[in-house]
Amino acid sequence: MDSTLNAEPTSAIPPETRARINRLVNTLLERYSVTEPPVPIERMLKQPLDGLWDAHPSQISFIMGHGLYRYAPRLAEARLLYRLLSDSVPARQAELDTPWPASRRTIKYFARCLLMPEEWIRALPPPDRTPDAVSEIFQVTSYDAVIRLAELGLPVPADVVIPPDE
User: Fold this and answer.
1) Out of 11, 27, 158, 160, which could bridge 2 as a Cys pair, Cβ 3.0 to 4.6 Å?
2) pLDDT, tens digit, 9 for 90 and up, residues 56-105
3) Within a domain: residue 152?
4) Which CA distances in Å does 33 have to 21, 42, 55, 112, 120?
5) Is residue 163 part of a domain?
6) Phi, psi at residue 96, to the nearest 5°?
7) Structural domain count, the chain
8) pTM of the predicted model as reported, rounded to 2 decimal places
9) β-bridge partners, 157
10) Distance between CA atoms of 125 and 61, rounded to whole angstroms?
């Protein structure tokens, strides 16, 4: 698989929004004591920090993904967490505020940042910084792994075209 090295991270998200989302992600990981992949997103949804948001079982999908998409529900759960945080006044007061209103692109960016934190990706040995390895280690789809690697300016398959709305 050929790959190219991007000199700069690829993201249409403004730098200040990216920084704010990364601070939120680091706070969540710290408060949930998560230090390695995979991020326990289902637990995070079911066990809100100090009751800062409502976790309704009807909102949480228990559908299992299959084949190439077996990890897709995890990204959906991370996007749901963003929406729950956005709707929560107590979460904002506890400095878990999210940029809002947020575009679909911003919410997807949050999900990738939460499930594949930059520090963890960069700490991987270079042979593990491939879409397939990142997918298995972080339990995300290969597609989202490619997008995240590109966002961080790391090598991605040369034949992959990243849609501008990602």
Assistant:
1) 158
2) 656 555 555 545 568 889 999 999 999 988 888 888 888 787 878 888 99
3) yes
4) 18, 14, 19, 18, 14
5) no
6) -110, 45
7) 1
8) 0.86
9) 3
10) 33
Distances (CA, A) of 112 to 2, 30, 75, 121, 148: 23, 17, 7, 11, 6
Domain range for 117? 3-157
- Quick: pLDDT tens for 120-162: 999 999 999 999 999 999 999 999 999 999 999 998 888 877 7
Q: Which residues contact 76 (CB under 8 A, 6 or more apart)?
A: 61
Query: What does the block give as tokens for 11?
Result: 């993201």
Task: Give the C-alpha separation, 126 to 141, whole Å.
Answer: 19
Please count the residues of the chain.
166
What's the pLDDT score for residue 66? 47
In the block, tokens 């993201």 appear at 11
